[in-house]
Amino acid sequence: MKSLTVSLAIVALTISAYAQVTQPNASEWSPKSKRAAEDAVATKLDEIRASAKRPSLERVSPSVSEVQLVCTAALTGRKVGDPIFGGLETYATNDISAETEALNRITLRFPKKDWPRYSVIVERNPNSTPENPAYTVGVARRPSALMEFFAPLFFDVPFKGMNEWKEKVAPECRNRKR
To answer: Which 3 state secondary structure label does DSSP give 100?
Structure first.
């Protein structure tokens, strides 16, 4: 009888440990859900520009720096920005499709001729739960692809400080591509 009790206790502990190990981290979610969240923010951005009678912008894939900086903002709770172009703004929200002050600001601040493109990154915050979701959204207004490519040549000191953003990235967010 004693060996049966010990065996049941071991089985229960094993199942409990397995369940804890296989539970996904709150900040991890499926690529499909992440993409849907980013699409919702992009739709809201387009709606804000349309209601302000501003021309639409071209949505592009986020850069590696944007992905890693938004991941860092989600993990640390700090606001981060794009150190090169200054067009990245982050904000925390519980409602992805909400029209926030930060989204309005980044959406309407720059004229289209100077910043015709944008990218969206959404990260789930570590304290997010199914009952109370929490997200960090990053929206980056970007210049033309040609300007992005040649920008380092136009700086006062070309290439100086181009990788300083990497020092701001949390260790858990390094090497993230998307």
So the answer is: coil
List, for residues 118-154, the tens digit of each pLDDT value: 999 999 999 888 889 999 999 988 877 776 666 555 5
Average pLDDT of every residue of the chain = 77
Residue spans of the domains in the chain: they are: 27-173
The count of other CB atoms within 10 Å of the CB of residue 71 is: 22
Judged by DSSP in three states, 34 sits in: helix
Q: Positive or negative CA dihedral for 10, 15, 18, 24?
A: negative
The CATH number assigned to the domain with range 27-173 reads 3.40.33
Work out the number of other CB atoms within 10 angstroms of the CB of residue 175.
9
For 128, left (φ over 0), alpha (ψ -120 to 50), or beta?
A: beta
SS3 state of residue 135: strand
Percent of the chain's residues with pLDDT above 90 = 36
CA-CA distance, 116 to 139, in Å (whole number)?
A: 13
**pLDDT classification of 39: cutoffs 50, 70, 90:** very high
| pTM of the predicted model as reported, rounded to 2 decimal places | 0.73
Record the tokens describing residue 15, joined without a space.
């199942």
Both tokens assigned to 25: 């981290």
